[in-house]
Amino acid sequence: MAYSSLCRRLIIACSILLAILVSGVSCVDIFHEWIVSADNTINLVSVSQPVITINGMFPGPLINATTNDVVHVNVFNNLDEPLLITWNGIQQRLNSWQDGVSGTNCPIEAGSNWTYVFQTKDQMGTFTYFPSINFHKVAGGYGPIRVNNRNVILVPFAKPEAEFDLLIGDWFEADYKEIRSLVQESWGIPDVMLMNGKAPYGYSNATDYESFTVTKGKTYRIRVSNVGSVFSFNFRIQNHKMVLVETEGSYTNQIILDSLDVHVGQSYSVLVTANQDEADYYMVASPKLFDTNFSNTPYLVGNGVLHYANSVGTGRAPVPNGPDPFDIEFSINQAKSVRWNLTTGAARPNPQGTFNVSNITLTQSFILHGSKAEINGTLRYVVNNVSYLTLDTALKLADYFRNGSGVYELDAFPVRSVNDAAAYGTSVVTGVHKGWLEIVFNNGHEVMDSWHLDGFGFYVVGFGEGEWTPESRNTYNLYDPVVRSTVQVYPGRWTAVYAFLDNPGMWNLRSQNLQHWYLGQELYVRIHDDDPNPAKERPPPENLLLCGIFDESPSPSGAPAPQPRW
Ligand SMILES: *[C@@H]1O[C@H](CO)[C@@H](O)[C@H](O)[C@H]1NC(C)=O
Ligand SMILES: *[C@@H]1O[C@H](CO)[C@@H](O)[C@H](O)[C@H]1NC(C)=O
Ligand SMILES: *[C@@H]1O[C@H](CO)[C@@H](O)[C@H](O)[C@H]1NC(C)=O
Ligand SMILES: *[C@@H]1O[C@H](CO)[C@@H](O)[C@H](O)[C@H]1NC(C)=O
Ligand SMILES: *[C@@H]1O[C@H](CO)[C@@H](O)[C@H](O)[C@H]1NC(C)=O
Ligand SMILES: *[C@@H]1O[C@H](CO)[C@@H](O)[C@H](O)[C@H]1NC(C)=O
Ligand SMILES: *[C@@H]1O[C@H](CO)[C@@H](O)[C@H](O)[C@H]1NC(C)=O
Ligand SMILES: *[C@@H]1O[C@H](CO)[C@@H](O)[C@H](O)[C@H]1NC(C)=O
Ligand SMILES: *[C@@H]1O[C@H](CO)[C@@H](O)[C@H](O)[C@H]1NC(C)=O
Ligand SMILES: *[C@@H]1O[C@H](CO)[C@@H](O)[C@H](O)[C@H]1NC(C)=O
């Protein structure tokens, strides 16, 4: 059966059930066919290395959707190993089957294809996609997602002249398979900071650098995302102020910035007005908590160009200095100033502040410590001393077909303590459906960390020093915390978030730092709604892939195919 009418079917279902009569409730189906390949001939900077491209492009193509559209992406895996793509920040409402992480989806095997179908339900904003398994993200395969507002929503700023997607990330000049094999040993530091896959301006051997052309007097929306593996960066544009307007699907209180810290996995929109002399100006992204002078890694400072259409010359001053990269207070103060605009509508006309946390009762609290540990002499990353062990069987399948039995042990993971020696575990914890969950992330590393929850936007209520204690709650901002899906955690400090668990499914909670994630800093939150009404959580898609113990290929014992338990 074709999916082509899914959008219309959803509208009809919605109209009947909810009698939505608002004019302009509409959505469209968006179709993409992606060929994902590793191109060994690409020389981005100074050496040829395999780069994961989509339809020959790096970064991959833009997914340009509007709230409630249905996106179909048929992914052909031309790599020589299994692949999954995840949609960072797209909430997959009632539909964790499409989330594209190892716990929800069986991998797309080399040489085969699989079609994701997901709705950008009740969302707007700036997001990214990237490959989620096998350390592929270090080789690219990522790209931008825009979810535009429906026409009926008033956006809290004038329509910009144009929009630019700016994907910035650190990059290793090596074969990703080699990097992956060394991740437990000499992980090292990246070589260069790329802007939309391009080397910094001025890099001696690079032929191409990123450049946006603007017209004097006009205002532009730049959607900046950190698609790197390791470094947070400070982003700034020479001689230009930026107005912060959006982050990962929330409109923020508009604040004027000289520079903006963006952590791994995060996205922001800023407005920039071309109000300077007609010349060329640097767009810079320099790593945080790292001294590129001392380590003599100048190319870790990303550098592109804001080019005025009538620019008469280079006219460039030296690369503008950002704040001291080691000034954590600067970064935290800026983070605390990123607030939710309570009065504006986002995906729906209701003001964002209608759904606020000023008066909620917490149902659950997870106090999580991310750190390193040795398990049997091997370097691993742990959460509460448990290092996530990825199974061949996707957890969501195990949940659906047999209530997890024989695959994972629900709630074995200690959500509030670190009292045991480090060990492996396939951590799946219960999130109470329609409860409020507090999550505290403690960062036991000497480097930045950032954490992401699939399936939700969470309210960022607090940042603090040292170890979190219950008294730390007195410092929370419960008035206008911003809602987003990835939050930074400073070394030796904590960050606290609240999430309203109204989205049943199997949801990944992970470090966005690729090494931390790959070596075990993740878990899954299982949110179950006992109501069997299929209008709640979606059934598996018709093209469901089976793997691990559910693999359909005939087994020697001829075991029967598994049946859903209910
Ligand atoms: C530029 O290319 C030359 C010749 O291939 C090489 O020796 C040199 O190291 C390269 N420089 C940089 C900065 O990559
Ligand atoms: C994205 O979609 C919107 C709404 O359909 C359209 O106005 C805009 O031109 C599109 N942008 C791009 C870059 O395709
Ligand atoms: C693979 O692609 C073909 C079209 O080329 C499509 O008909 C088929 O549904 C895709 N397979 C899956 C599992 O999505
Ligand atoms: C919040 O949104 C409202 C309504 O769109 C807008 O008028 C106001 O300027 C915004 N406030 C801030 C501080 O950005
Ligand atoms: C790196 O060197 C430049 C030029 O000397 C200087 O302006 C900048 O402050 C230095 N950066 C750091 C992090 O020390
Ligand atoms: C937050 O929600 C409560 C209802 O739970 C409401 O009374 C209050 O006005 C809201 N706060 C803001 C700032 O909108
Ligand atoms: C706030 O919470 C209290 C206690 O749960 C409740 O009695 C009160 O009605 C709530 N106020 C609002 C505005 O929701
Ligand atoms: C599924 O497993 C959970 C705990 O793992 C248990 O509480 C629940 O009763 C089980 N449900 C069914 C239908 O077996
Ligand atoms: C966590 O595991 C490490 C390594 O096994 C151990 O040294 C440490 O004591 C453990 N932490 C706690 C609180 O037991
Ligand atoms: C460590 O290795 C031993 C021997 O291979 C094994 O029995 C044990 O389960 C391993 N421990 C962990 C935590 O993996």
Automatic annotation (TrEMBL):
InterPro entries: Cu-oxidase-like_N, Cu-oxidase_2nd, Cu-oxidase_C, Cu-oxidase_fam, Cupredoxin
UniProt superkingdom: Eukaryota
Alphabetic keyword roster: Glycoprotein, Signal
Residues in Plastocyanin-like domain copies: 44-151, 166-309, 396-530
Keyword Glycoprotein among record annotations: yes
Keyword Ubl conjugation: no
Name under which the protein is recorded: Monocopper oxidase SKU5
Source species of the chain: Olea europaea subsp. europaea
